[in-house]
User: Which sequence fits this backbone?
């Protein structure tokens, strides 16, 4: 029987309600000075010191990873590296709010979150190093291969979440996406499918203000990307993407909603891309340094550190341990990324199909013959 | 579980659409990870009734309607396959698979390779294709060539009721993505169902002959057989090869046939230029060079957008056009 | 300088403001009993009797066209016919609100709106009759060829509107789309482009509750399709799609906004598909008759008629004239659709390119030779 | 209007990327209906700097950035062309044209036909394509085959600095949609600019020879010429044909060359199976049947997803592989 849906204007009965979604002030617990800004939300969370320190530690390590990767791409040890420097609150807060059984769909931008998940740094960088595969075992890490075609991973996350729901598992899927990616049709279709099937999935948009050179104002006319949730009938949250406490909390709540069967959530994390798009990009062509400065003072790591120091939680040995682990990681990257990765030409044909086609067998044989002839010639 | 078709004993005749339906039922019964979804495949049973009764008999969780978005359908299938399901999705009409093209070319075809086999995608994409049904624009495309040229995909297409069943069962059992092209013009053609048949990758010689080989697949196999009959009257003994699977391609069968006959005509509905027939003609010309008595001819659609019902008869490979091609195979050298 | 967009929760400064967009009660002037329901909106429009009668007349003619087309598809005179019976308030109200210089992008469902625009009935039905082209001159009628691939015409409308804006013309583009079409990626991309470029375009969604067999509830979880406007930062309006006065008013206002340079509008018109999807469809497989009955009493033509009668505007000669014109149209359709359309095999090659390629010339010659041989044989 | 390149006199050398930039500038100057848009083509000047300075010199209304959505870009271009503009859009990388595939196949290629010429679409789609630049996945596809198999599109690709200019000018002046495939590996190759050249549809014989014909286009033309040089040392006198335009196809030039030499090798980077080379080999085999001394060989990429930088050298047609193919052309019959 068709009757017109008639929620009231405030969308009561609507996930979170319109007012919460449309509120443009991002959820924030720590202001840029590292002070508790519970003012913005009366329900300040009870902050577990252990959790805070673990988060801080992951951010220290994650940032070290990013800085080291940037160094090594300059040295030609990586084909390309898209830095997430300054986006650690998103990269790390989101991941730490997930369970190991949850699935995660990263983009090329999200190496730090993968390292935070536990994936080996060199495995994480396999693709960007110029190898032919994602480097890690997606099944073991419940982490899809890094996705480059923008927003195309979003429907995969929706589908995987639907599958988990049908299988009766309490698995949640989280897909990262950029502000630019929200313009792609696949983003739209993914959110719609997820909402219609009430799939346990979180679409986490890192609004870092740029898609390569294109600023957010040229990407959308919406007052906030989180507002898009309204059009899909799903929960939407806008969060300060440089406040790791807020990010972690928002993702944890979205995951709980999903596990309770209350469907997907769109999270917009307002942050900033501190570096150029990749090492190959020249950001000076399209943005002012002053803009970068505005965000420097909003650094997510410094912000948490200020708070932890003030709270007397950041003892010297805690700092020493974190820095040591970070340095060990950097040394390990330096050493292992220094070596040429081993590639085997036979891998070209090995995984195109479960069984190579007769045509591929012919081609593999031909290549082998060529290479044998070469090495003959070499002798 | 009482399925519509359980009544139909092996011996009675069923339509090709019913054979596809039966294959889906048997696969869903055999493996609970097999799910069917797409536009209108649920309660309606699909615009061609191919999924008729599946939702009723297996429930909404196994066969369900989707929102109207092909990339979303394909992406959802990929995500479900990553979690261990075996989705069979329907693109309502050939041309409506185009919105899903990026998902097919950049993910469906590549995921296994990008993950060294860790994330195989056992997804079957059912695409009703081809013309001859008086469809309005966008409803009669032959899109197989786009998939054939995309490494990582299998592309198969049945020409018989039994192949519709056996190839689809094999496609669903395959751990690789399979584009399953259904010749919609044959949906209503009836025959007895044989539930065992050759594997994906094997062509079938539908008619033995000695003078020339007609190479066809899907909707044009029937036309080729009719042409062979007519040619027999004119004194040509033609062999007809039904490819069944374009990727992988059965070089052995095709090459053996053409080396035997020394002449070949390749037939399909899609536009000729850059079409699948080009690949077939090129490899036959290369592999059978010293056996060929005449150039390999192609009988295909013209290089135009698929024409409207009132003109499609001019576009589609016809018995006459095939006979003309056969007649042009330089018999004078005999 | 990047500062977070911060409209207040009500979206003041936002086109129409959130409250208006999120209000789920559709804009309505005539209730289902044909009585003025200004209650729903205090600003009841001054109704111009001439305009009302012209609208009614167009609805009578449009419906007659639709009924006749349905009859003739049964007789095999059309390849297929998607009826818009019961959607006349949308088909006609939207078109009458446009200027002849405005561009219009119809779908396969919208023959009635094309006839209302003035396009000859038989030309309108050319495609559905099984010919190879749209039948009319799109430039003359500022009407794109009917579009079948869903929502793909929406970005064309956005692009054309942007072009008009760049050219400094006051042309507006209106694209029809179905409820199902809103799920396609192209719909999303079109609305986003239109909003970013503030293009003078109206996206008019005829929410007739079904996409073939799929009901709205399986298409979206949104409380209303008009709510999608929020996510693009554009004006959104929900209107009673069976109230032609409301539809005409909503489109006129959107067109004015567009001409004033205030950008695009998304209009959701809540209506119902009274017939099966097309003559080839069997609606009894997926919906109850009782549902159709619920909508019968909301018939847009009857509703307007009741009002006009009560207002004493519907004089006998007015009725007689309209019915006569409608019958003449039906007779004309009967006669001209009865004849086989002339098709010329040479047209297969004539318009693929400005100049046929050498390959096409070869193919055209080959076909000509075949046909000549045939007719030889025939003699 | 002071354009970056106005300094560059005809006589000095410019890069292929600069030649494309110059063609865009000159076309925008000649016709105000020409607009350029796409992802990052504005202030940034494109990721390959091909549109460098256009926004600065022609203004935001003539060259502008779009939201990140390729179907939206293509659909917007189609709508603008319907209103009389001549859009030149950029797909940032080959594989990123796939989201626009439905707009290209169902509208861009068909609108003229669907409207009996009332709505021609003078749209140019610039697609940087091919490998050899050490790109990560999805950044080195050769997607020309998908467009070549779609009637209604022209598909052209330059191999030289001058062709990059002349073909693009011709493409922008064409009233039909043109897919302009830019061999990104050649963006930085320099040469003197000749602003006049043959029309779309004409191939160019880049090297005269008598023994065999190498047929190439875009990025592989250079490889073919190098192979011809090397072959000369080995005593083979090879002719090299640069197609320049795949659709329309220059049968006259190709056929004449192969009939003269009696042998042919077709070269491209895209996967071989179902690739453009199949069409070329098929039509050469058919049209030159009685002139061929040996089967037409194809030197192409393997039938695999484009490989990573560390392995692409194995995948790309190389001088050695071309020489092997030439050596296999059954010279013993000479
Ligand atoms: C479908 C598609 N189109 C274009 C590109 C090229 N591209 C790579 S990154 C990028 C910008 C993405 O911006 P955003 O989504 O905001 O993510 P960010 O890089 O800021 O993390 C573009 C245009 C792509 N990868 N995929
Ligand atoms: C891209 C695409 N996918 C699928 C179809 C097949 N199809 C034709 S109409 C239709 C339903 C459309 O529903 P809606 O958008 O609500 O419009 P309505 O028919 O109700 O007017 C479908 C699925 C199509 N035409 N285009
Ligand atoms: Mg960004
Ligand atoms: Mg509908």
Assistant:
């Amino acid at each position: 029987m068709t009757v017109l849906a008639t929620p009231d204007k405030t969308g009561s009965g609507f996930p979170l309600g319109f007012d919460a979604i449309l509120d443009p002030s991002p959820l924030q617990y720590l202001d840029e000075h590292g002070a508790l800004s519970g003012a913005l939300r009366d329900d300040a969370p009870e902050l577990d010191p252990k959790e805070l320190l673990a988060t801080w530690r992951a951010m220290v390590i994650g940032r070290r990873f990013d800085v080291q990767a940037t160094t090594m791409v300059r040295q030609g040890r990586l084909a390309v590296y898209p830095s997430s420097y300054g986006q650690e609150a998103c990269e790390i807060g989101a991941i730490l709010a997930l369970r190991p059984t949850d699935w995660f769909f990263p983009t090329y931008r999200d190496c730090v979150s993968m390292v935070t998940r536990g994936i080996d740094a060199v495995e994480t960088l396999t693709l960007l190093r110029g190898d032919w595969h994602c480097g890690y075992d997606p099944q073991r890490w419940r982490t899809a291969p890094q996705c480059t075609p923008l927003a195309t991973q979003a429907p995969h996350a929706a589908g995987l979440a639907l599958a988990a729901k049908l299988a009766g598992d309490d698995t949640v899927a989280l897909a990262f996406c950029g502000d630019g990616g929200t313009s792609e049709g696949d983003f739209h279709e993914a959110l719609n499918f997820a909402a219609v099937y009430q799939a346990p999935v979180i679409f986490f948009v890192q609004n870092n203000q740029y898609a390569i050179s294109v600023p957010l104002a040229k990407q959308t006319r919406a007052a906030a990307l989180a507002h898009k949730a309204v059009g899909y009938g799903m929960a939407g949250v806008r969060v300060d993407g440089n406040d790791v406490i807020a990010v972690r909390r928002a993702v944890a709540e979205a995951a709980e909603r999903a596990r309770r069967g209350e469907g997907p959530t769109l999270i917009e994390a307002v942050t900033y891309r501190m570096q150029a798009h990749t090492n190959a990009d020249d950001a000076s062509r399209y943005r002012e340094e002053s803009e970068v400065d505005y965000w420097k003072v909003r650094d997510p790591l410094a912000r948490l550190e200020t708070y932890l120091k003030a709270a007397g939680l950041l003892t010297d040995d805690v700092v020493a341990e974190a820095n040591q682990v970070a340095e060990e990681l950097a040394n390990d990257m330096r050493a292992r990324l220094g070596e040429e990765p081993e590639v085997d030409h036979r891998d070209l044909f090995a995984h195109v199909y479960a069984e190579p086609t007769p045509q591929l067998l012919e081609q593999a044989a031909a290549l082998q013959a060529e290479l044998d002839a070469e090495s003959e010639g070499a002798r | 579980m009482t399925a519509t078709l359980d009544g139909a004993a092996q011996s009675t005749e069923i339509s090709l659409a019913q054979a596809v339906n039966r294959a889906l039922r048997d696969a869903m019964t055999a493996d609970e990870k097999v799910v069917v979804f797409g536009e209108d495949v649920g309660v309606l049973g699909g615009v061609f009734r191919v999924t008729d009764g599946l939702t009723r008999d297996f429930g909404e969780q196994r066969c369900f309607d989707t929102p109207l978005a092909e990339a979303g359908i394909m992406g959802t299938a990929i995500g479900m396959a990553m979690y261990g399901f075996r989705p069979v999705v329907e693109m309502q009409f050939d041309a409506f698979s185009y919105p899903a093209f990026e998902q097919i070319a950049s993910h469906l075809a590549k995921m296994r390779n990008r993950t060294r086999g860790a994330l195989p995608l056992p997804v079957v994409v059912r695409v009703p294709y081809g013309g001859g049904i008086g469809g309005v624009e966008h409803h009669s495309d032959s899109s197989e060539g786009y998939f054939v040229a995309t490494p990582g995909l299998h592309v198969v297409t049945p020409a018989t009721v039994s192949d519709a069943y056996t190839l689809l069962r094999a496609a669903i059992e395959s751990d690789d993505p399979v584009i399953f092209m259904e010749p919609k013009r044959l949906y209503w053609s009836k025959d007895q169902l044989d539930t065992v048949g050759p594997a994906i990758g094997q062509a079938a010689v539908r008619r033995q002959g000695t003078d020339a080989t007609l190479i066809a697949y899907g909707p044009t196999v029937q036309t080729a057989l009719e042409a062979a009959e007519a040619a027999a009257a004119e004194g040509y003994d033609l062999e007809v090869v039904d490819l069944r699977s374009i990727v992988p391609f059965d070089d052995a069968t095709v090459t053996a046939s053409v080396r035997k006959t020394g002449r070949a005509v390749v037939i399909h509905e899609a536009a000729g230029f850059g079409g699948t027939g080009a690949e077939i003609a090129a490899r036959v010309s290369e592999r059978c060079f010293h056996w060929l008595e005449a150039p390999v001819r192609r009988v295909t659609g013209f290089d135009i957008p698929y024409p409207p019902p009132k003109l499609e008869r001019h576009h589609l490979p016809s018995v006459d056009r095939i006979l003309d091609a056969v007649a042009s195979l330089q018999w004078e050298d005999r």
